[in-house]
């Protein structure tokens, strides 16, 4: 950069450091306390940086003055060639470097860290982001924009097409400020069964809004031949009503201040993975596991729960595979519901076993399938390790209702008390049941931060014949034991 640009950049950085220290002192004054160890460290570090910048600015201004005294003057430029030569001769060229593309989810993790270190103060969070990642970083720009516009929490609610969601803040999240949140969603969705529908040639599920009655016909009427003068028989139709209520899947991750303040990429990856992994596993398991029943007002039944099923056949050679696929297809044909948007869902080890099957000539029996999915006998395949062992599911994608807000909501707290359990929680705000003293921990008392990640989603079969599955499948024999 030229001297003027370097001076401007350091003056901006100096101002941000002064503002950060002012914020620290104002916060302490407002609370009537002295600085804690972390605040002292940050304040003193900022003060040292300000002193170094002041010294460097003196040197930059002296160098700028010296360069100006020896600068060549261009009296007249009478051609584009001379103008180009004058611009390119001598002096320094300005190089603008694009921000490096971050690994998926890291941008979101940076926001989480800065937000946590600032204890929920967006103005302070934007200053921290500027110091840690640079004034031109996406994290700094996003947090500063949110602070300037009065945001009080980090949220993202990307409304899918046809949704009835009308949250008043949704329009404010459209544009550049959504990119870091889309980054996190991008990391989560490809790992889930739900996220693979509608991608890479796999049919989409039927998107519907929450709390809207969905009417389906479950039985047709009859027609009759009627003789002259005879009474005409009556007929009737059967219908069912389905309404998908918004249900949420969530997890709370508690981190210590030391982890939050660690600026290494591995710490950012920890934040990202903690928030994503639990949601991924819960969605996969409960969407596909036949044993998952509905819990009223809490969670939906899996799409396979109560669906027609049969056992896999034989020793699992190629002929047995074809026979099993035919039996799945017959379930749909018998129900007059051809699976035109059919998708197979199985474990990665089972798909691998299929890819290794060869005929007597050493040729692959099933081209197009591998451990990451593909196509089996013309049917798209989704693989997930959360499918129960030995289970293969056929889903007619257009016959599965999916209501999904499409985003992840994040909240944080330093003052809450949390039951440090992953099951059998006793706290209930509706029933006003207090947490147990043995497991309740104060985040403030332990210098910890709690992050809550939450996604609102629900699903249901559009009709009974939407899903059929096989159990005790043994395709590939001993090879399948690898799964």
Strand order of the largest sheet: 5-16-10-6-9-8-7
CATH class call of the domain at 309-402 and 463-482:
Alpha Beta
Task: Please report the number of helical segments.
Answer: 12
Helix content: 25-40%
CATH architecture call of the domain at 309-402 and 463-482: 2-Layer Sandwich
Explain what the structure shows.
The protein is an alpha+beta fold. Helix content is 36%, strand content 17%. It contains twelve helices and 16 strands. The chain has helices at residues 3-31, 37-69, 80-88, 106-117, 122-133, 138-148, 179-188, 193-196, 257-261, 265-288, 318-334, 348-356; strands spanning 206-207, 214-219, 238-242, 247-256, 309-311, 342-346, 369-370, 373-376, 379-383, 392-396, 400-404, 409-413, 417-419, 440-442, 448-461, 467-471. The strands form four sheets. A seven-stranded mixed sheet has the order 5-16-10-6-9-8-7, with helices on one face. Strands 1, 4, 11, 12 and 15 form a five-stranded mixed sheet that branches. Strands 2-3 form a two-stranded antiparallel ribbon. A hairpin with a 2-residue loop joins strand 7 and strand 8. Helix 4 (106-117) crosses helix 7 and helix 4 packs across helix 10. It starts with a helix and ends in a 12-residue tail after the last strand. 29% of the residues are buried.
């Amino acid at each position: 950069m030229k001297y003027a640009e370097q001076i401007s950049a350091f003056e901006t950085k100096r101002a941000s450091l002064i503002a950060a220290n002012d914020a620290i002192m104002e916060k302490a004054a407002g609370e009537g306390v002295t600085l804690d160890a972390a605040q002292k460290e940050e304040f003193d570090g900022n003060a040292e940086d300000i002193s170094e910048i002041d010294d460097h600015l003196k040197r930059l201004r002296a160098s700028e003055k010296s360069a100006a005294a020896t600068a060549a003057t261009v009296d007249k430029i009478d051609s584009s060639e001379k103008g180009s030569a004058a611009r390119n001769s001598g002096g320094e060229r300005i190089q603008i470097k694009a921000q490096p593309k971050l690994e998926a989810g890291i941008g979101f993790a940076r926001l989480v860290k800065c937000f946590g270190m600032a204890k929920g103060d967006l103005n302070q969070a934007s200053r921290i982001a500027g110091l840690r990642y640079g004034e031109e970083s996406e994290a700094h720009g996003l947090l500063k924009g949110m602070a300037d516009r009065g945001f009080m929490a980090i949220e993202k609610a990307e409304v899918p097409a046809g949704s009835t969601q009308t949250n008043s803040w949704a329009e404010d999240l459209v544009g550049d400020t959504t990119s870091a949140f889309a980054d996190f969603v991008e990391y989560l969705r490809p790992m889930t069964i739900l996220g693979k529908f509608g991608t890479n040639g796999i049919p989409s599920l039927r998107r519907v809004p929450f709390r809207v009655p969905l009417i389906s016909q479950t039985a047709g009427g009859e027609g009759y031949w009627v003789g002259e003068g005879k009474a005409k028989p009556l007929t009737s139709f059967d219908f069912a009503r389905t309404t998908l209520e918004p249900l949420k899947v969530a997890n709370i991750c508690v981190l210590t201040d030391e982890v939050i303040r660690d600026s290494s990429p591995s710490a950012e990856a920890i934040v990202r993975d903690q928030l994503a992994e639990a949601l991924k596993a819960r969605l996969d398991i409960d969407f596909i596991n036949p044993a998952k029943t509905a819990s009223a007002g809490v969670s939906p039944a899996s799409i396979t729960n109560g669906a027609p099923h049969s056992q896999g056949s034989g020793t699992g050679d190629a002929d047995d595979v074809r026979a099993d696929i035919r039996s799945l297809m017959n379930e749909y044909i018998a129900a007059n519901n051809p699976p035109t948007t059919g998708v197979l869902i199985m474990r990665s080890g089972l798909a691998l076993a299929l890819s290794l099957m060869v005929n007597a000539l050493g040729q692959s029996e099933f081209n197009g399938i591998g451990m990451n999915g593909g196509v089996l006998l013309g049917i798209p395949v989704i693989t997930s390790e959360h499918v129960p062992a030995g289970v293969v599911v056929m889903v007619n994608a257009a016959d599965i209702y999916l209501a999904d807000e499409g985003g992840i909501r994040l909240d944080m707290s330093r003052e809450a008390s949390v039951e440090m359990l992953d099951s059998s929680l006793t706290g209930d705000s509706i029933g006003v049941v207090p947490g147990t003293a043995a497991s309740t921990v104060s985040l403030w008392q332990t210098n910890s931060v709690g992050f809550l990640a939450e996604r609102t989603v629900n699903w249901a079969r559009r009709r009974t014949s939407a899903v059929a599955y096989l159990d005790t499948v043994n395709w590939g024999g001993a090879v399948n034991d690898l799964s």
